[in-house]
Specification:
Blueprint lengths: L1 H17 L4 E3 L6 E4 L7 E2 L13 E5 L5 E5 L5 E5 L4 E5 L5 E6 L13 E6 L5 E6 L5 E5 L5 E7 L15 E2 L4 E2 L13 H18 L3 E7 L5 E7 L3 E6 L6 E6 L9 E5 L6 E2 L9 E7 L5 E7 L6 E7 L5 E6 L8 E3 L6 E3 L15 E9 L16 E12 L12 E2 L5 E6 L6 E6 L5
Parallel strand pairs: 24-28
Antiparallel strand pairs: 1-2, 2-31, 3-4, 4-5, 5-6, 7-8, 8-9, 9-10, 11-12, 12-15, 13-14, 15-16, 17-18, 18-19, 19-20, 21-22, 22-23, 23-24, 25-26, 26-27, 27-28, 29-30, 30-31
């Protein structure tokens, strides 16, 4: 009898998975939502990884086994591309290839000398080995002309630190550890506070340990070059999508403890901090490039958890633009359309930094600048921060989403859809919501 009940339960679970809707109109927003993925555990990439092919036709996603698939944005056809386990880096801006790391003998590419970078053409499936990584090195980003990869290592250590999703206690459903800790009052911390404590402890260990090094490796010759060496936790490496000589990176940790957002040139020059704190508990982070590489945008709070902005820094001039948000509109991650005219956010639950009572939504934001009164400008207006605000529109009710899985919104290249990952229906899948309201 027990075997019968197990069989019935398994059959029921398969049936439920098969019956997940593929399309619906969100009754709270009037926007159409479609499920792009077919298999449970399929995820879109992190918000600052380029997930779209150079022709704008296909979306890169990862599968539960650590493989890579493509989704045709016009037909929704899903095709397996690379068998896992691998660690996807980025869709090349130039070649139409997807770059990823792996061990030729299997694994995700976090071991010693055998780790290598590969590239697979999304149309033909042809695969080539790009470059082998020296012992202890890991890479995270590829430049615009696909001639350089950038990554980090710990000086004197031959094995890179494991990815967050493979730390002890990590939950594969969410791609990060099950953060747990007890506060000074003896009570369990919230998930968000426990995560902050883990970040702080890791930061302290990093500053007390061996130097971290940011380096590049030539995709043709394998030549490596050291750019930055410091006792800071270097993370979130991103090449400019248009300038092959510009790298953005962060000092990781609890945000009010670090000066987070930095850039450096590939020859090691022009190391630059992009934001300087002016008040206690001011925080800035989750930085990303605009599609044209002209702007760097980041979450800014003045101070933390009280006043919310999406701040922009113009790379060429240093000119700053800040757009204000309401508490419920704060999002774990933001993004911007290719033409820079629209922004998106993936919301957040009430444990997170904004403590938003009603923040679990996918948002569309239309920016509006605060005008000069009567058209009269201040004499030094050019040197001042240009301010504005977001007119927010809710696109998807994420009330049933568990925010331990970060949705990571991105705009499709045609600016018609916003793609995100969610467990809103139970298992993790990739979804897209139409920006135009359903008729």
């Amino acid at each position: 009898m027990k075997i019968v009940w197990i069989a019935l339960a398994l059959a029921a679970s398969v049936c439920v998975a098969a019956e997940l809707p593929t399309e619906w109109i969100d009754k709270d927003t009037g926007h159409r939502v479609i499920r792009l993925s077919k298999d449970d555990g399929t995820q879109s990439l992190y918000f600052n990884q380029n997930a779209y092919t150079a022709d704008g036709k296909k979306l890169i996603v990862t599968t539960q086994g650590g493989g890579i698939s493509t989704i045709d944005l016009a037909t929704r056809e899903l095709k397996p591309l690379v068998a896992g386990p691998v660690s996807v880096l980025v869709a090349g801006h130039k070649s139409g290839e997807v770059y990823y790391t792996k061990r030729p003998g299997g694994g995700r590419g976090r071991g010693p000398a055998e780790t290598a970078v590969f590239a697979t053409n999304v149309n033909t499936g042809a695969t080539r080995e790009v470059v082998k990584l020296p012992p202890g090195r890991s890479v995270a980003t590829l430049n615009a002309d696909e001639t350089l990869l950038a990554g980090t290592y710990v000086d004197g250590v031959d094995t890179p630190a494991p990815a967050t999703s493979r730390l002890p206690g990590a939950d594969a459903r969410f791609g990060q550890p099950n953060y747990e800790a007890v506060g000074l009052d003896g009570k369990p911390m919230t998930y968000a506070d426990a995560k902050d404590l883990r970040l702080h402890n890791t930061l302290m260990a990093t500053r007390a340990g061996a130097p971290r090094v940011l380096f590049t490796i030539n995709t043709k010759t394998g030549e490596t070059k050291e750019l930055v060496r410091e006792h800071e936790w270097i993370n979130h490496l991103q090449f400019s999508p248009t300038d092959p000589t510009l790298i953005m990176f962060c000092h990781e940790g609890t945000w009010h403890e670090v000066d987070r957002v930095w850039t450096v040139r590939t020859d090691g020059s022009e190391l630059k901090k992009l934001h300087t704190r002016t008040m206690n508990m001011e925080i800035a982070g989750h930085e990303f490039f605009s599609a044209d590489g002209r702007m760097i945008w980041y979450d800014l709070q003045t101070p933390r958890g009280q006043d919310f902005w999406l701040a922009g820094y113009e790379v060429a001039t240093g000119k700053r633009t800040w757009y204000h948000l309401q508490r419920n509109e704060w999002s774990v991650h933001f993004n911007v359309s290719n033409d820079g005219s629209l922004f998106a956010g993936d919301g957040g639950d009430n444990e997170m930094v904004a403590r938003a009572p009603d923040g679990k939504w996918i948002y569309l934001f239309r920016p509006e600048r605060v005008p000069d009164v009567a058209g009269v400008k201040a004499p030094n207006s050019v040197s001042l921060i240009d301010t504005g605000f977001f007119n927010g529109e809710r696109l998807v009710n994420m009330g049933k989403h568990d925010y331990r899985l970060e949705p990571n919104v991105t705009f499709t290249p045609d600016k018609k859809w916003i793609v995100f990952r969610s467990n809103i229906l139970g298992p993790t899948h990739v979804y897209a919501v139409e920006i135009a309201k359903a008729k």
